Amino acid sequence: MTYQEWFREDRLPHIYCTGCGNGTVINCTLMAVDEMGWKKEDTAFISGIGCSSRAPGYIVTDSLHTTHGRALAFATGVKLGNPDLHVVVFTGDGDLAAIGGNHFIHACRRNIDLTVVCMNNQIYGMTGGQGSPTTPMGALSTTTPYGSAEPAFDLCELAMAAGANYVSRWTSYHVKELTRAVLTGMQTPGLSFIEALVQCPTNYGRRNKFKQVLDQVEFMRSHTVLIQKLKRMEEQGEKFPDPVIPVGEFVRRNRPALGVKV
Ligand SMILES: Cc1ncc(C[n+]2csc(CCOP(=O)(O)OP(=O)(O)O)c2C)c(N)n1
Ligand SMILES: [Mg+2]
User: How far, in Å, are 38, 61, 92 from residue 227 at the CA level?
Assistant: First the structure.
C-alpha cells in the first residue's frame, strides 16, 4: 500500500490556499502511517476547528472533526474507549494552545497514547489572521496591528514540561525529518507531540514581509538549528540565526502512560 491510498479523493478540491504548508504535513503524517503498516479500520484521525483541523476530512478512515480546542478531549475518549485504535490528532496553534490550552497540558500530563500533530502557522488562519499564542513578538496580525507585544508559547517546551513521552519540532521544509519524527512518535507509547511549523501565505506571510511562499519556507530553512547543535553553539559563544528556531527531538522517554495496552 502507498500513503496516497489514505486520501479521500471524493473530498477534492481541498480548502487550502495556494502555497499552504498543511498539505506537506498531511503527506508526512500519512507516509509515517503507511510505514507503521496500520490498517484503515484500526486508525482514527481526530481534530478540532481550523484550517489544520480540516485534515481528517481528506483521509479515508473514520474521523472526528470536533469543536474548537476540544480535539484532545474527544481523542482521549476515543483512545480510552477503544485502546486498540491508533489515534492521531491534527490540530492548529490556536486550537491546541489558546482555546484548547488546558486540554493540551492535561493530555500531556496524563500521557495518553496519542500522536498529536500540530500545524503551527503562528496565526488563526481560518478566521482571517488573528494573533495566536504562538504569534512571534513583533509580528503583525489583524489583532496585533502594531506588532504582537506578547511573548509566544514554545509548544514543545510546554509539552515536555507537562509530561509528554515524545516531543519533536520540524517545519514543512524538513519533509524527511518531519516524517521520521511522526513515525518515531507513533512508535513511542504515551503522548507524542510533533510540532510542524508551516507557512501561511494568506494570513501570516503577506502581513509579515514574506512576499512569496518560498520566502517563508526559506526563513524556516535558514533559522532552524538542531537543538543539540544550538546548545553547543551557545556554550562556545558561536553566532546563530536571530530569531532561532530550535528543531529536532526535544525528549523521548518512558513515563507511565494512559491507554497503552499491556
Ligand atoms: C468556540 C469557538 N470559538 C471560536 C471559533 C472560531 N474559530 C474557528 S477556527 C479559529 C482559529 C483557528 O486557528 P488555528 O487553530 O491556529 O487553526 P488554523 O486555521 O490556523 O490552521 C477560531 C477562533 C469557533 N469555531 N469556535
Ligand atoms: Mg493556526
Answer: 31, 35, 23
Tell me the CATH architecture of domain 3-252: 3-Layer(aba) Sandwich (3.40)
Query: Stretch 23-50: mean pLDDT, rounded?
Result: 98
79-84 mean pLDDT: 97
Give the pLDDT band (50/70/90) at residue 52: very high
Task: Give the list of residues 6+ apart from residue 43 with CB closer than 8 angstroms, or none.
Answer: 33, 61, 85, 86, 87, 88
Ligand 1 centroid to Cα of residue 173, in Å, is: 24
With a Cβ cut-off of 6 Å, ligand 1 is lined by 49-52, 68, 92-95, 119, 121, 123-127, 132
Cα of 261 from ligand 1 centre, angstroms: 33
Residue nearest to atom 24 of ligand 1 (CA): 68
| pLDDT digits 0-9 by tens, 134-178 | 999 999 999 999 999 999 999 999 999 999 999 999 999 999 999
Asked if residue 202 lies in contact with residue 17, where contact means CB atoms within 8 angstroms, the answer is yes
Q: What is the pLDDT of residues 169-192, one digit of tens each?
A: 999 999 999 999 999 999 999 999
**Every domain of the chain and the residues it spans:** 3-252
Return the C-alpha cell found at 241. 540565526
Separation CA 109–CA 224 (nearest Å): 28
In the predicted structure, residue 1 carries a pLDDT above the cut 80: no
Q: Which residues pair with 166 in a beta bridge?
A: 192, 252
Give just the sign of the alpha carbon dihedral 95, 112, 75, 114. Answer: positive
d(CA 37, CA 165) in angstroms, rounded, equals 22
